[in-house]
Design goal:
The complex is a heterodimer. By secondary structure, chain A is an alpha+beta fold. Helices cover about 65% and strands about 10% of the residues of chain A. The chains are: A alpha+beta, B alpha/beta.
Chain lengths: ~375, ~240
């Protein structure tokens, strides 16, 4: 168990505890209640052995039902099979009891009812009610066959109220506890989801603010100069500044989706502007790349923008997994040395100029 | 002038065949002679197959990947240089493991294909950037162990530096850079599936001093190479 959903696990534990309580109650009743009455009245039965066999049949039904209920593998077929076996056994027990004394010496009615509770308590309450009604009708039928007087009817009703009432009450209590546990569960999960949503919203808000600040510093003044007419669009330096800002805007749009390949994605976005200028840009990766955090990605893509802006006709960007992180390299025909951004956020730069070709490498280490 | 290397092109797109032929023709020293072109592999089996030192093989013929056909070509005595639009590292590794001498992606063709053919004819290692990429990406359990120097040379080569620049970066000669990269390639020839082309490459690498027999992990491969393969011995033997 990883505890990924601790609350669900918690309500599962409660439900299991209720099930165990029902199993203990039913088995205890059959042993002490049913079994005790059977032994106490053993002299009164026409055949004690037959009653004993029926008691054992019910014990086996309880054992099977208990195991399946505890494992959670009790389907409706098996549940009703066990219930009907109990119903038949209790009716047979009643039929084999001495006439006139049936209700006084009956041990089986109670046990059968509790077996019904055991196998049906997690199903709709109406199913249990139908079962208990069928059970009561069978007993009343046997009693009527023997001859039903007012005394018998009173005894029958008293027993019915006592045992069936208790059985319905237990089943209803388990249902109520189950639903309380699952409500608590849902509430706890909802609370957690709300907390998570709030945290995510905060992160998104902060990221948006950071992007807005970045635009304030660089893009906004440039656009203002162009709008005011103080900047000359024919000036090559201004053109470079525009290219850099255009690349940054594209990167800003690419940022934010946290995919394992987000650095590759952002480098592609940074390369778009250079490609529009006619620079052939290749981007290749080697190995399973680690996830690079946002601030480090920004340092790397800043370097990419600086180098690609200076590239004349070709550039190759590669990303390779190295011992403790990632090596992002740039080879481009920049003609001269390019001013790289300051190292930081775990990113270090190295570069080498060979004639007109620049090689630069940004290494990010996760240690 | 040394004797020309004869080559066959197996490629299902005539325009690509024509492009490769023009690269071969434009070699100033005319070191390669094109002797056969075909759109499938059917003509390279059987008694009447053309005699060629090297086969330039497009890995995808009529939409089907033919890496599994490479061992058959190698067994027929051809050296294979794969030339493909696929640059997926697993396909590159699979191609080399099946006994191809070199792998040239279509982007690398104009710079590397003729050189790769010449290297293959001499059983010498030739490592393109796409091959370096595949070696750097390799995470298979049976991969050979490369030294720090070999890995660094492969990485810088993959990144796009010239071998001379790699040498300056690593403060070693360009020749040593070639040696490191070739040694890495030779180590790959000593692993995986058994193929006469791989044995020939290893034997030549040892003869050239690129690698020592003790540096090859499964040493038996070299022993196997010595148990002559008449069709693919190192030239001059």
């Amino acid at each position: 168990m990883t505890g990924a959903e601790p609350t669900t696990e918690m309500s599962g534990r409660y439900q299991r505890a209720f099930t165990v309580a029902v199993v203990v109650l039913v088995a205890g009743w059959h042993l002490a209640g049913g079994g005790g009455q059977l032994l106490h009245n053993r002299a009164d039965y026409s055949s004690f052995a037959f009653q004993g066999v029926l008691w054992l049949v019910m014990a086996v039904a309880i054992a099977v039902g208990a195991v399946r209920v505890l494992r959670g593998s009790l389907d409706w077929r098996l549940a009703w099979t066990v219930a009907i076996i109990a119903l038949v056994a209790s009716t047979a027990s009643a039929a084999a009891s001495p006439a006139g004394q049936m209700l006084a010496v009956s041990w089986a009615w109670g046990s059968a009812g509790w077996i019904g509770v055991l196998v049906l308590h997690r199903r709709r309450l109406a199913e249990l009610a139908w079962f208990l009604a069928a059970e009561a009708a069978a007993i009343l039928g046997v009693q009527a066959w023997d001859g039903l007087d007012r005394m018998d009817l009173a005894a029958f009703l008293a027993l019915l109220a006592w045992s069936t009432g208790a059985q319905i009450a237990v089943a209803a209590a388990v249902k109520a506890l189950d639903s309380a546990a699952s409500r608590a569960d849902t509430a706890a999960r909802g609370e957690e989801a709300a907390r998570e949503r709030a945290a995510t919203a905060e992160i998104i808000q902060a990221a948006r603010h950071a992007r807005w600040l970045a635009l304030q510093e660089s893009t906004v003044p440039l656009v203002a100069e162009l709008a005011a007419g103080t900047a000359d669009p024919g000036d090559p330096q201004l053109q470079v500044r525009c290219a850099v800002q255009a690349a940054r805007l594209r990167r800003l749009m690419a940022e934010g989706d946290e995919l394992p390949s987000s650095l590759v994605h952002e480098l592609h976005a940074s390369a778009d502007v250079a490609e529009l200028r006619g620079v052939a840009v290749e981007i290749e990766t080697a190995g399973m790349l680690p996830q690079v955090p946002g601030p480090a990605r920004r340092v790397i893509t800043d370097a990419a923008i600086a180098i690609l802006t200076a590239a004349r006709s070709q550039a190759r960007i590669t990303l390779a997994t190295v011992a403790a992180g990632i090596a992002v390299s740039f080879v481009a025909d920049t003609g001269s040395v390019v001013l790289l951004p300051a190292a930081g956020q775990g990113v270090a730069f190295e570069h080498q100029q060979d004639g007109g070709m620049l090689w630069a490498e940004a290494r990010w280490n996760n240690r | 002038m040394e004797q020309q290397v004869t080559v066959a092109i197996i490629e299902d797109h005539p325009v690509v065949t024509e492009g490769v032929a023009s690269w071969i023709r434009s070699d100033p020293e005319q070191r390669v002679l094109l002797v056969h072109t075909a759109r499938d592999l059917a003509g390279l089996h059987g008694e009447a197959r053309p005699s060629a030192d090297v086969v330039i093989l497009d890995l995808e013929l009529s939409g089907e990947l033919v890496t599994a056909q490479i061992p058959g070509l190698v067994a027929s005595g051809y050296r294979v240089v794969a030339f493909s639009g696929h640059s997926d590292p697993t396909i590159v590794m699979d191609t080399l493991d099946n006994g191809a001498h070199a792998y040239v992606s279509k982007e690398e063709g104009s710079d590397h294909l003729v050189e790769a053919v010449l290297a293959a004819a001499a059983d010498r290692p030739y490592v393109t950037r796409s091959q370096a990429r595949a070696m750097l990406s390799d995470q298979r359990p049976g991969r050979p162990e490369l030294s720090q120097q070999e890995l660094q040379a492969l990485l810088l080569w993959f990144q796009g530096m010239s071998k001379a620049s790699v040498g300056r970066r690593m403060s070693i000669s360009e020749n040593t850079v070639r040696q490191y990269i070739s040694r890495a390639r030779a180590k790959y020839a000593a692993t995986g599936r058994i193929a006469p082309s791989k044995d020939a490459l290893l034997a030549r690498a040892i003869e050239d001093g690129v690698i020592k027999p003790g540096e090859i992990m499964p040493y038996t491969s070299f022993a196997r190479a010595a148990a002559n393969h008449p069709s693919l011995g190192a030239p001059g033997q």
